[in-house]
Amino acid sequence: MLNLSELFQKTRPLSVNKLEDVGDILQYLLPWAALLAVALQGDAEAARRWLYAGSITVTLTLLGKFLFNFTPLGTRPNGGRDSFPSGHTSSAFMGAAFVHFHFGWPWAILPYLLAALTGYSRIQANKHWLRDVIAGAVLAVVTGYFTVG
């Protein structure tokens, strides 16, 4: 899920020219921005909860991909594998859910909108079905509720 060379390539000036690129960037930006916010507060306990929420979200996402890969849920719209659930979406929603449950609802509106844009970018790029995006979002928000909230 973490491909730094791809991320750095997409963040160079004038290289973000597709909605898919925006989704690729937001999957990293949202969770890391949430961690930066608690780091600036000096809240070590919240940083531990962020790590816990992120670890569980990634683990459950990869477990879902492993379990569903050889079922119809595992097939992407473009014919690829590892479709269910969407990792980009679960990562982005993990950041939004962390902001929601740590800082409160008003602070989470923009992160949730950006996380939804990430999910939409995956559908638009023909990488995921709507069900994959919804599953990734629900997985991350439920995990955030139980780990942060």
List the helices and strands and how they pair.
Layout: H1 4-10, H2 19-41, H3 44-68, H4 87-103, H5 105-124, H6 130-147
Helix pairs in contact: 2-3, 2-4, 2-5, 3-4, 3-6, 4-5, 4-6, 5-6
List how many beta strands DSSP finds: 0
Mean pLDDT: 92
- CATH H-level superfamily: Phosphatidic acid phosphatase type 2/haloperoxidase
* Strand percent estimate: under 5%
Spans of at least 5 consecutive residues with low confidence: none
CATH architecture term = Up-down Bundle
Could you describe the largest sheet, including whether it forms a barrel? Answer: none
Alpha-carbon distance between the two ends: 25 Å
Q: Assembly type of the shown chains?
A: single chain
Quick rundown:
The chain is built from six helices and no strands. It is mainly α.
